[in-house]
Structure formats: structure tokens, C-alpha cells
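Take a specimen:
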Amino acid sequence: MTPSTARSSRREFLGGLTGLAATAVAARSSAGQTESVGTRFRIDVHHHIAPPRYIAAIGAARSLQPVSVNWTPAKSLQDMDAAGVATSITSITTPGLWFGDDSAARGLARECNEYGARLVSDFPGRFGMFAAMPMPDVDGTLREMAYALDTLHADGVALFTSYGDRWLGDAAFTPLMEELNRRKAVCFTHPTAPRCCHNLVPDVPDPIIEYGTDSTRSIASLMFSGTSARFPEIRFIFSHAGGAAPFLAERLTRLPLANPLLASRVPNGVLHELERFHYDVAQAAHPMALASLFRLVPISQVLFGTDFPFRTSVDHVQGLAAYGLTASDLRAIEYDNARRLLPHTRGQGQGATPVSPTPQR
């Protein structure tokens, strides 16, 4: 367990994205100029895309949440190649897909997921996908999950840490958890700001404080509702090293000691649940976050992630390298753990020689 030492306008985007076929040519050319295929081996489980339909929906909703409107497949591939990333598992980030209309959210989820599946098909081996869900519409989510996993062969589903004022352990979401558990599905969990807590500190955007806090709320909700113990086959991935959960681990573990009802909902103990979740290092590849995470969970539960396009892959490769991990621990985080968790990636990166990228200037 212990290592050796302790983030152009919408018009510009839409004008630049003329279809996957056009970007494929530029991206493949860029890849050829950057490095040979043999040096790509890392697997990024936290990599965002912004399909045109998604950008249009956000514009129509006048959402104020952050989103990258100048993303293209070519930019993803360029960033990946600069850091030796073989495969990125894509997802949709905040503000998500639901803007008050269940039917519209279902349609948007389907379009985003089919777009993601085309990326997987058009760039063999370079992309996987965590399917977007029309939450908090549970019925629509169950249908979209079946389509995404059975027809599109997604690597898992992507959920947010909360929806309005409900976190993932809420009883309203039990049917979804039952189905995820039945499928032994991977559930990538991305933070957002709940209804209670937007713009609490002047001039400090929600991602700076609220995202890490909401990840912690959702982890607590899953554990202390009994959800994680009742549905142990769900393979959760929590973003950003689990937010504040590693730092607050002592408080979380002591809570059931004084509350028999909560103790009954975590029959194997809080640490058992925390240690079997998976955590990515997106926006957390630095000593302060890594030191706490590595003391909480074994290396086997830690995954490489970048939060592209909000941060770069090179940032995270260099951050991990500077921490002083052993070669075997670094290999586990950067690709072995993901290959074990995500079957579609098992052929990626095999036989490659790990290298550190040249810093971008």
C-alpha cells in the first residue's frame, strides 16, 4: 500500500467541429509527429468531451456552470499523445444533461452517448466511454443504461455526486443502484455543486471548494444510507482523490461508534467501504492530496485521471513522477489498475516502455 516516499467561444467551437472525419485526419497527423505508438500506455479515466448537441443544450439553458466549448477530438488526441496516454475514457461534465425536462434529458443523453461511441469506433484503441445518464430521471436512466452498456458497449456509467438536494445514497436512487449492482458495473462519479451551495464564497468558483466537498457528501451518503454495503458489486470511481474524504477519514470512521443505527448500515466498517472504492488523481497529482489518499487506500484502488480539457495530461504525469512512487506503484496507477477494472482497455499499453513526457512550454 505505501509508496516509496510520502482546466473561444461557442461559435468558434461549432465552426471548428465539422465532423469526426475531418478531425481524424488532423489528429492522426499530430499523433505521428509527436511520438510512436509504442510509447503510449497510460489510461486516463477522467477525460471530458463536449459534443455539439451538449454545447447547444447548455446555451439554450443559459447555464452558468463551467464547460469547455472549444473541445475537439483532435485536441484530446494531441494532449494524450504529449503525455503517452494510450486510451482516455470519456465523460460529460457539469452541468450535466437535465435542465428541467425529462424527455429532453433522455434525448440529449442518447445523442451524447452515440457521439461517444462514434469516437470509440473512429479512433480504435484511443477512447472508451462512461455513458451519460439523464438523472435525476431514474426510469430514463435505467433505460439509457441498458442501451449504453448492452448496445454501445460503454465501459460504465457516469453519475454526478448529487442532483438538486439528493446524494447518491438517497432512497429515490435505489432502483438504479440495484441495477448497477446486478451488472457489477463501473460507476464513474463526478462532483458538482448541490442546490444548497452555489457561490457561497465571493469570487471563489464552485469547483475550487464545493466539488471536493460534494464528493465527500456523496461518499458519506452511500456509506451511511447502507447503499454501499447492500450493493457491493458496484465499482465506484470517485474523482479528484475522493475530495475531502481521505482528510476526514477519522471523523467518518468514528461516527458509527456513537450511533448504533449508522453502525448497522456499515456492518464491515467505514474503512472497508473507503478502501474498496476507486479514486482518480485528476486535479490531485500533488503531494498534499496523494499523501492522504495513499495512507487511506491501497495502490490498487488509485487510477490515472487528468480532467482534460480543464487540465493537461502532462500536468498529471509530472505530478505523479515527482511524488517519488516506486516503478511498480506508478505502473499500477497509470495503467495496470485501469486495465483490470475496465475490460475494454486490457489490450492497451501492453509491451510499451513507460517514459516521462517532455514538459510543454
The chain has 15 helices and ten strands.
